[in-house]
Amino acid sequence: MKKSTLLLALFLFFSNLSLAQEIRVYKEPKFGFDWSQPSVYPDRIVISFGEDPSQEIRINWRTNTEITEAYAELAPATAAPKFWRNATTQKAETEVLDSRNVAQAETVAHYHQTSFSGLEPNTVYAYRVGDGERWSEWFQFKTASAKAEDRFSFLYVGDAQNYVLELWSRLIREGFKKAPEAEFIIHAGDLINYAHREQEWHEWFTAGGFIHSMLPTMAVPGNHEYNFLNQADREKRQRSLSVQWRPQFNLPLNGLKGLEETVYYMDYPNAKFIFLDSNRDQEIQAQWLEEVLEKNTKKWVIVTYHHPLFSASAGRDNEALRKLWKPIFDKYQVDLALQGHDHSYGRGRVAPGENVMDGLNMQDATGTVYVVSVSGGKMYNIKPDGWDEWGAVRDRAAENTQLFQVVSIEDNKLEFESYTAIGELYDKFDLVKNEDGINQFIEYKQNLDPEFRFDNTIPYVDQLPGLMEENLLKKYPGYSVEQVRFYEEEGNPRIRVTLKSSDQVKNLILDQEGRVLSED
């Protein structure tokens, strides 16, 4: 065989092989209804800090309704295995959640909660929960230091929302691995996709596993934590907070009446963390926020809510919220705003104490730094032209990338790092607080790799292999490929393709080799 013929044969062979290999149909996991149902054994064990994290821990867990009395035991942890001799036993409050008439919740369960206060700062404690016979394992957590100069770190993540057990699990576990000394984790809303869906909450708790039981959760609801309870509510367009939210979390009760456990604050010795619900009652929250900040004596102020004041994604803008809350952030020199919602990454800032950017001023000093991040598997396009039209500078962005953030504070310095789901450093900056309260901004993006985009990462949407698309467009001249979706039919891979011309649309079904099976 001639060399040229051999090369052609090899080219065709590997081209055809490549076509077959590139058509990969993703198989989503299936869950039975009983998978997420409670039992007599404690599950969904989650802890949160109280208003003062150096002295208080709050614990929640779930069982079925057979368990009518529940207890938590807590002791200072030591290396000696019988540390439990110094434990305190405390009876929990038990609440029934009967959601059998709520679509996709359809469960009755007992939720148990208790709080331990008067704890020693900077101390490792162990706890377990149960009914007196059936106990969980002993979990450990550490209270915050009472010294303002001591260093502490926390994790922050944006929307988990979709593919929670499939894809968010790797992200949250990598975050715990990267920052094992983190003292708590902030969730900026949209923990799940459908507010009341029991299976999705079970995915969230399963994905985090023991992390939820050891790393205090401080969360705010996103828009996906609100949905209709029934058809009557749907007709009235009246959305309600997830029926599971308040029973399964035990967050500080120092916020607004009627917005309990969605609006609140937490005080570290030198940092005030404020949590807002951007879904509702925004003006009332603005008044409350100003009152809280007016009384603030902490050096650092970090605010968390779901809908960004400066949107990262294309086609989004929360103008009314920005006009309402940003002046308060400016007035009281909020240092950092942690946001979600947009399923992409954006990090930027405004000038100190001003609404109009001053480029020279920003070289050395900054006002509030705004971050939007996403931790789950659902991705959107970023806003292509940055934040200039809104009076802000966007310094770093990403598409198609799962991220978690590690924030560390030590006296006058705040360090911010963003990592990918495989532990790569993606973004970094520092803030150094001057005596006048204005922050020096230190940028590190010049030392980092180029930004991730849809066109330089693994394709997010299904795509036809190049040769298959080329052959298809030869068969249909004047058309372009509008949409591609891989699926399976009776065990056989199939490709649904939408073609579009200037005045016509064709929907095709192809087999794995690109042969047209049907057309309409």
From TrEMBL:
<dbReference type="InterPro" id="IPR039331">
    <property type="entry name" value="PAPs-like"/>
</dbReference>
<feature type="signal peptide">
    <location>
        <begin position="1"/>
        <end position="20"/>
    </location>
</feature>
<keyword id="KW-0732">Signal</keyword>
<dbReference type="InterPro" id="IPR008963">
    <property type="entry name" value="Purple_acid_Pase-like_N"/>
</dbReference>
<dbReference type="InterPro" id="IPR029052">
    <property type="entry name" value="Metallo-depent_PP-like"/>
</dbReference>
<feature type="domain" description="Calcineurin-like phosphoesterase">
    <location>
        <begin position="166"/>
        <end position="345"/>
    </location>
</feature>
<dbReference type="Pfam" id="PF16656">
    <property type="entry name" value="Pur_ac_phosph_N"/>
</dbReference>
<dbReference type="Pfam" id="PF00149">
    <property type="entry name" value="Metallophos"/>
</dbReference>
<feature type="domain" description="Purple acid phosphatase N-terminal">
    <location>
        <begin position="42"/>
        <end position="143"/>
    </location>
</feature>
<dbReference type="InterPro" id="IPR015914">
    <property type="entry name" value="PAPs_N"/>
</dbReference>
<protein>
    <submittedName>
        <fullName>Metallophosphoesterase family protein</fullName>
    </submittedName>
</protein>
<dbReference type="InterPro" id="IPR004843">
    <property type="entry name" value="Calcineurin-like_PHP"/>
</dbReference>
